């Protein structure tokens, strides 16, 4: 068991002896990696509270979210790579850093972009959300499909349309590209104007 509540880690890398894998589990308290979080082999089980990551996330083994909120809060560009769906899906994802980019298809329960944060979906890929989508920052759809696939009521709120930033003289791509709703069990509500 890894207890990360008192002192943050810099880099965290999980790898078994000679790449043979293994299993690691965080204690229930929150944990922080101020730089990279890497699973080279084996399975890492997150804390059940908050997991803060200041650098890149790479999963080449297995990641069990343990109902945690994974927060990307770096001050420079961050990448999320590797296995990010199926048994390695995220629970709650929160983006508080400068810019975060997905390099592969990804799945989460809730998906939240904080003010001043920019999140880029996987290029021409799929971003699956089984909970709610909150965008108070900037969402770059990157020609991707955002799929709402929950089994209970879902909603999307915040800035969901592409708009023009006159101060920067550029378009802010905060709308969706493709939207797919496969939630046949309950309603999916857009609580604000949205564009694709």
Question: Which characteristics define this entry?
Answer:
single chain, about 200 residues, mainly beta, 8-stranded parallel beta sheet, 7-stranded parallel beta sheet
Strand content: 35-45%
Q: Judging from the principal axes of the Cα atoms, what is the shape?
A: globular
Unreliable spans are none
From the helix content, strand content and strand pairing, which structural class follows?
A: mainly beta
What does this entry look like structurally?
The protein has 196 residues and is mainly beta. Helix content is 0%, strand content 42%. The strands form 5 sheets. An 8-stranded parallel β-sheet has the order 3-6-9-11-14-17-20-24, with no helix packed on it. Strand 21 and strand 22 form a beta hairpin. The N and C termini lie far apart (44 Å).
Write the layout of secondary structure elements.
Layout: E1 12-14, E2 23-25, E3 31-33, E4 37-39, E5 43-45, E6 50-53, E7 57-59, E8 62-64, E9 69-72, E10 78-82, E11 92-95, E12 99-102, E13 106-108, E14 111-113, E15 118-120, E16 126-129, E17 133-135, E18 138-140, E19 145-148, E20 154-158, E21 163-165, E22 170-172, E23 178-181, E24 188-190
Parallel strand pairs: 1-4, 2-5, 3-6, 4-7, 5-8, 6-9, 7-10, 9-11, 10-12, 11-14, 12-15, 13-16, 14-17, 15-18, 16-19, 17-20, 19-23, 20-24
Antiparallel strand pairs: 21-22
């Amino acid at each position: 068991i890894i207890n990360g509540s008192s002192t943050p880690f810099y880099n965290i890398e999980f790898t078994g002896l000679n790449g043979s894998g293994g299993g690691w589990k965080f204690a229930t308290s929150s944990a922080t990696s101020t730089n990279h979080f890497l699973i080279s082999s084996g399975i890492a089980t997150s804390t059940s509270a908050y997991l803060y990551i200041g650098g890149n996330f790479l999963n080449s083994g297995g990641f069990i979210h343990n109902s945690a909120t994974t927060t990307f809060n770096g001050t420079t560009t961050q990448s999320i790579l590797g296995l990010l769906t199926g048994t390695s899906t995220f629970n709650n994802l929160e983006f508080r850093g400068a810019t975060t980019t997905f390099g592969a298809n990804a799945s989460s329960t809730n998906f939240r972009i904080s003010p001043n944060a920019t999140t880029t979906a996987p290029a021409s890929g799929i971003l699956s959300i089984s909970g709610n989508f909150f965008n108070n920052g900037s969402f770059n759809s990157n020609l991707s499909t955002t799929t709402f696939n929950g089994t209970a009521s879902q909603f999307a709120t915040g800035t969901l349309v592409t708009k023009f930033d006159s101060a920067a003289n550029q378009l802010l791509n905060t709308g969706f590209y493709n939207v797919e709703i496969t939630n046949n069990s309950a309603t999916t509500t857009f609580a604000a104007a949205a564009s694709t």
